[in-house]
Every structure is written in structure tokens, then in C-alpha cells.
Design brief:
mainly alpha
Length: about 200
């Protein structure tokens, strides 16, 4: 493998482009602010020369290899094609016997199933994210307030039960009072009759 296709060269190329762009920006800042960061050196000239050399190198280098998958899978760019892989073994361009052709409808069904699963996963992740954003800092205080509320509610229910018993006693006393008033009325009626008999 040649050096220009190695990972080290790609890293070096990106490094030179990034450093050159940074130097050009610093040089532009020098020109705008009318200052000089390094005495006797104009960074904009250095950066522009570095970038010009980089662009020249990119123009001279061959482009990266492109892969044409439709040559390996004839008809890949057609939706309804029956695709079989080409076996590039010792026999040349013979079709592989163990590779079954792709069916467009089956692929659509599998893709729609995958899409449904991805959508449900997305919903689950959204729910997890919303749960992550919930602020639980005041939860213990809220639980304490709820406990106080329930204890107050229990006291109120006990008071209601006591009130019901008091109300029952009050009803009994009222009915006894009604009975007493009835007997008093009859006694008073008897007294009135006696008084009228005495007068007459």
C-alpha cells in the first residue's frame, strides 16, 4: 500500500489543512487588529502559503477510490431486479449458486418491521429522556407533605366518626326531649282544664 493511501498520510493531510486554516485566521486577526503576534512574521502570508501548498498537493494527488457496487451486484440500482452476487473466484465472473436472489417485497416487509421497531425504540428512549429530565430534588419533601396530608385526613375521618356518634346521641336526646315536651303539654293541658273548672 502506498504512503498516500495510508492512515498516517490522511492524518497528516488533515493536520496540515487544520493548522493552515488556523494560521490564516490568526493572520486575518492580525490585519484587523493591526498587531503582530510574532515580530517580523506575517501570519497571514505564512498561512496562505501553507494553504496554497496544501491545495496544490490535493490537486496533484489522485482522488480516492470509488466503489461501484452495481458491478458486483448487477441491477442494484433497479428496484425490482433479481440480484445475485458475482463470485470472483478462480472461475472468473460466474454467478454464486449459494446466494439467493433478493425479493423486493420481502425486503420491504423486513424494512417496515425494522422501522416499526426503531420507532418504538425511539418512543422508549424519548420516555427515558423525559424521565431523566424530571427534577427529583423535592421528592422527599413532597412525600413528607403527602404523609402529613394522609395523617390529617385520618384525623378528619376520626373526627367525622366522633361527630356521627355525637349526632346520634343528639338525635336520641332530641327524641327524649320531644317525649318530655309531649308529656309536659298533656300536663299543662290538664292544669288548664283544672283551672277552667275552678273558675267555673
Amino acid at each position: 500500500m502506498s504512503f498516500i493511501h495510508s492512515k498516517g498520510f490522511k492524518y497528516l493531510k488533515n493536520l496540515i489543512i487544520g493548522v493552515g486554516a488556523a494560521i490564516v485566521l490568526l493572520g486575518a486577526l492580525e490585519k484587523i487588529e493591526h498587531v503582530q503576534f510574532i515580530p517580523g512574521v506575517s501570519l497571514i502570508y505564512v498561512g496562505l502559503l501553507l494553504e496554497a501548498g496544501m491545495f496544490l498537493m490535493l490537486g496533484l494527488l489522485p482522488p480516492d477510490k470509488e466503489y461501484y457496487w452495481e458491478k458486483l451486484y448487477p441491477g442494484l440500482d433497479s428496484y425490482n431486479s433479481q440480484i445475485t452476487a458475482i463470485d470472483l473466484g478462480q472461475g472468473g465472473n460466474s454467478l454464486s449458486a449459494d446466494v439467493s436472489p433478493l425479493d423486493g417485497d420481502k425486503v420491504d416487509q423486513k424494512l417496515s418491521g425494522m422501522l416499526t421497531e426503531l420507532q418504538s425504540m425511539s418512543g422508549s428512549l424519548g420516555a427515558l429522556k423525559s424521565l431523566q429530565e424530571v427534577d427529583f430534588s423535592g421528592t422527599s419533601e413532597q412525600i413528607k407533605k403527602m404523609g402529613d396530608f394522609y395523617s390529617n385526613l385520618n384525623e378528619a375521618m376520626a373526627n367525622i366518626n366522633d361527630s356521627i356518634e355525637d349526632t346520634q346521641r343528639y338525635k336520641e336526646q332530641l327524641s327524649a326531649l320531644n317525649g318530655n315536651l309531649g308529656s309536659l303539654n298533656s300536663v299543662y293541658g290538664g292544669i288548664l282544664n283544672a283551672m277552667s273548672n275552678i273558675r267555673s
